[in-house]
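ARCHIVE CARD
Drawer: 12
Card no.: 0347
Subject: one protein chain, sequence and derived structure
Cross-reference: see card 0346
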Amino acid sequence: MLTQMGLGQLAQGQFGLATADLNADGRPEIIVLGISACDSTGCPVVALKSDGPGKVQPIFAQKVAARLAITNEALNGYNAFAAADQAGAIMKNAAGQLIVYPVGATGQAAATPPAAQPPAAPAARPPTVARAPAPAAAAPAAPAAVSAAATAVANARALFTGEGQPPWHDANAVYIPVCLFPRCLNMQIVEKTGIGTDKAMIRGAVTPEDAARWCAIYMPRDRLCPENEVANFGTAGGAMGKPKASTIEANCTAGTMRAIDNSPYTYNGTWPDGGPGAGRAKFSGLYGGGVGTRIFEQQGQTSASQSIYLLAREPNSGEALAIQWELLCPGVTPAVQ
């Protein structure tokens, strides 16, 4: 269901799942907490409302910087979320206001002054979601409400892809596209030989500097993060798996390539005009258990077969393969077999 909604990344890595009827309509909403995407600002939480078959929409998408709780008070027609302490009490921000997160894509930001909230913490009841420990930092200011379903979808994706975060990339470096999300910790090119020939080779590595920048943004409390990412070739930012190799190779004349997933691919012409990837190289290789042409997708496009957010995590998506070929064989157009 999440994949069909374009939100399959919500179940990436470790996550918590709960259901609760937030608007008293007799149909429970689904609450997803992305534990693997937690950072110093909190953990991403997405609430999904069902209006019947095929009509599921996000009604909440933002980070919660403490344990997640559900209040007994309704705002916008939904029980609000709240940041709770270890005892289940609603936390307060520096101004003394209860930290309450309105739920519901109503287009209106719900007012949450202290007087409108329950006077004491017991209004919160913890749901059965997996809980992450509260950050050591001071409680954040009360957040704004999600304004519309479209905004909620965009926010949910941004939480998991890293869109809007400060860039961790070295602006002067080139990276092998194991994963196409902004937050993906890809390998920087550190060695090149035979580019454009029948023995083209590129070697990549996660540098200590890249790992340090990435970890400072996404895993600031993990002291072992930088050395772990260097040792594991990165991709903690969202790829479906670690790269199977640290090198990519190609015979630019013959049109063959061994990509970063350590699988062989054969040049199969270019993608046609009028669609994603027009004019760029496409490849045949293992796909769906057989031999076929890899699907080419770009972030922001949609796919009849797979979500772009799922394909962006694959090192052998059509776009990732095209980029790898362009790195190995720039300007080379082999004859199609």
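Annotation on reverse: Confidence is low (pLDDT under 50) at residues 106-147. DSSP finds five helices and 16 strands in the chain.
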